[in-house]
Amino acid sequence: MDDRTAVALSSPPPRTRVRIRAALSAAAVLLIVGCQSRVTGPTATVRRTPPPRRSVMSKPAPLPPPAPVRPAPRYRKVILGRSVHGAEIAMSEFGEGGPTLFVFGGIHGSEPTSAYLAQQLERKLRKNPDLYAGMRVAVLTAANPDGLRRGQRENARGVDLNRNFPAKNWTAAAAHGRRPASEPETQALLRAMHRLQPDAVIAIHAITGPRQCNNYDGPGRSLAQSMATGNGYPVRASIGYPTPGSFGSWAGVDRGIPVITLELPRSQSAQAAWKQNESALLAAIRSTARLARHAPRAAPVNAGVRAR
Question: Which helix (H) or strand (E) holds 146?
């Protein structure tokens, strides 16, 4: 079989070819129309989320300046000595220096209200450092611990400590001690004075009868008057009887330090006495700061005992 015969056998007849072309054209038309027709079936809904809007924030308010850092209030316990029976005699110091006020109570063991007032003042200062800002306040609550324990005026050796100071008016007597400053409790108070070199001193006592007063020795009248505005007590230069060898004689009269002997009514309860005298003691703190800036300073105290 030659080539022409093979081509004739492989090619369809002309009529068949026409039909094939027509079928292909129809299929192409259907395909194009189908692609362009609209899809009517269910479709997924796509929602476009808009980008977040940038909020326009105002400038933050400036922060307040930091509060100044306050140094911790200075407090220290100072051991001054021991009593005849070995009880510790200690005072509390508040503040860093400057004008100095020394307050003590309990020098007579039969006057416990005086020790109570000193204790209350000490607690007040612990909780309120602003009360002694720029100055120093020292408080000795029990100058005669053995006498307070026994409820007697004198110390354990029977010596009245407020007649045992080395004042110029000291006199020899059994209750005044063998010599000035013979007692360890007296020596403890002298150490306190030597250490503090105070601008003023308040010695708290209690007295019988209606004789309560702000008694002063040395240049202490103005300080006594400032205390009177708080407690209403009269201001007196004398309590009506001599006091040889007293603390006021030694520190106030001989050395020119303002000394107040705060005489409480012995019949008054300790709580009532504190209520009446709290403002007086706080007034004394403020007045000491003022007086120290204007009054001439007393000569340095050299107590003749070794400071601790």
Answer: helix 145-150
Architecture of domain 75-294: 3-Layer(aba) Sandwich (3.40)
- pTM for the whole thing? 0.76
Which segments in the chain show pLDDT lower than 70? 1-61, 63-64, 66-73, 294-299, 303-308
Going by C-alpha positions, the residue among 202, 199, 186 that lies closest to residue 263 is 202
Task: Please report how many Cα atoms fall inside a 13 Å half-sphere around the Cα of residue 82, on the Cβ side.
Answer: 5
H or E segment to which residue 186 belongs: helix 184-196
Q: Delimit the domains of the chain by residue range.
A: 75-294
Catalytic site residue from 154, 185, 263, 278: 263
Whether 111 is catalytic is: no
pLDDT digits (tens, 9 = 90+) for 132-156: 999 999 999 999 999 999 999 999 9
